[in-house]
Specification:
33% of the residues lie in helices and 21% in strands. With 258 residues, the protein is an alpha/beta fold. It has an 8-stranded mixed sheet. The protein has a 3-stranded antiparallel sheet with strand order 8-7-10, with no helix packed on it. A hairpin with a 3-residue loop joins strand 1 (10-16) and strand 2. Helix 1 (59-76) runs parallel beside helix 2 and helix 2 (97-111) runs parallel beside helix 3 (129-135). The longest helix has 18 residues, at 59-76. The two termini are 23 Å apart. The mean pLDDT is 95.
């Protein structure tokens, strides 16, 4: 079983395909996964296989660990390009996410003011005003939208609770352009079902939603590490390039990571 369970609350720095030298901030327990999605392609594995026993790190623990690491990096390197909220699940589910964002911005300004603060999220808590407001403060609010097809979402992203993609699209629109859309394109099979979302059947409705949201940028990508479902396949360079070019043609910056 493929699994990457990250230390908490700080890990890395690691080199990110999309973000550069990234210092990770994991607001979830270090011994398991806590997420409102259970994606078949998640590098952290399936939720049921990694139930955490530890508690969430506190706001104070996150701030202390982050300051200690930033101080070390200031003296010993490397210089971070970005401080990234990611890790073992959905960062915005932490009850003190807004306050932790405030602390992080202050520490960033103190130690590495040129670094960006990014949040990788599946957008399931963007309906909460405090979460929305906190995300408006960061440099890169990177929100997942793999498709607008509800059946596909249930088979591939597998939300653990109620999820209405139309409401998600409206919540992403409410960022007024201060949002980056992140989309996974892949192929292959999962539980006997074809999960190829690179064709027009999926791309065109997704593209219309992207045009409606009007994000600052779109990041499309494909599988990079081993997945818990081993029948999945990478989208090709040509497929990603074709999708990227359609987004750019719509007047929205777009990058493709292979």
């Amino acid at each position: 079983m493929s699994t990457i369970i990250y230390p908490s609350p700080i890990f890395g720095p690691v080199h990110s395909r999309r973000l550069g030298v990234s210092l990770g901030i994991n607001l979830l327990p270090a011994d398991g996964k806590t997420c409102t999605f259970d994606c078949v392609y998640c590098e952290c594995g399936f939720n049921a296989d990694h139930r955490p026993q530890q508690k969430l790190p506190t706001r104070e623990q996150v701030a202390a660990a982050l300051e200690s690491k930033l101080l070390d990096m200031q003296h010993n390197g490397p210089t971070p390009d970005v401080l990234t909220f990611a890790g073992n699940g959905e960062p915005t589910c932490h009850p003190h996410f807004p306050e932790i964002i405030s602390d992080t911005l202050q520490l960033r300004d103190k130690y590495f003011p040129q670094a960006k603060v990014s949040v990788l999220s599946n957008a399931t808590f963007t309906h909460r005003q405090a979460v929305h407001d906190a995300l408006m403060l960061v440099d890169n609010s990177i929100q997942k939208l793999d498709t607008v097809n509800a059946d596909y979402i249930n088979k591939v992203d597998r939300p653990t609770g109620a999820y209405d993609v139309n409401k998600i699209v409206e919540q992403l629109k409410a960022f007024n352009g201060r949002v980056v859309i992140q989309t996974m394109f892949l192929k292959g099979m999962s539980n006997g079902v074809d999960v190829n979302n690179t064709g027009d059947e999926y791309v065109q409705p997704w593209l219309e939603a992207v045009k409606y949201i009007q994000p600052r940028e779109v990041m499309i990508y494909t599988i990079d590490r081993e997945t818990p479902d081993h029948d999945l396949q990478k989208a090709t360079h040509e497929e990603l390039d074709a999708i990227r070019d359609q987004v750019i043609a719509a007047g929205i910056p777009c990058t493709a990571s292979y």
